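Sequence in, structure out. Go.
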Amino acid sequence: MASTHELYAILMETLNDIFSEFKLSKTDIDRLSNEAETHSVDCGKKAVYKPLPDEIWDLFDDISNKVWDSTMPNSQKISLGFQLYEIFPSYYHFLVPFYRAIRDKVITDPNEKEIIWKRFMTYLASENYYADPVGYVLWVEFFEDQLTVREAWQGLVNHYSDRKSLLCLLEHAGPVPFDLKEPIYTSLLDDKKTHDHIFNSLLYSAFDVYGQIDEKKALDILAKLKVDTGTENYRLLNDKLK
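Output:
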């Protein structure tokens, strides 16, 4: 069996092989990385539309397909997929394949899924150019899909080490069934610093197109939050829940 160092070397050779195949120099990689980071900030936010230039979009598409359409074992695809995301943080090209692989039961090994959930939670507590695309793929892919939402939610909340990642997760959890979110809300109520995050989560749960909310229970939680009650968003949520 190959050592960890040998496996890492194999993966790095594969990454370098991809860059070589697409004739990408270090200067090219740095330029593309900066472009991806710039376009990934605020990914999915209303009124923010920053598409990648067509030639970069197509290049990233080809690179992604090179990995995910290959015959490599899933463990290698996962590792290589995350390496590529860290260099080129593009939501569609380097995160959506993880969703499709889990949805379509291409990735079924619990240990491999655990790697994915842990890495997603790590990114949520990281720089915006990593956190924003991950929040978006969870929101519109994993959480809006009834086939993946429960497994994804449980995997994520069971594998975080940073409170920041959990609070960020809540603000992307509109489509998550309320019975899954409620225990998290309850566990955080004693910490007033989390109340704005809980409020935002309730707001999105109430107004997202596929938002999931229990109006009575949400109203009880809202009454316990120490937040500004004079805002338009508070009025909208309060009226929606009554």
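Check: Residues 42 and 48 are 7 Å apart (CA to CA). Residues 4-154 form one domain.
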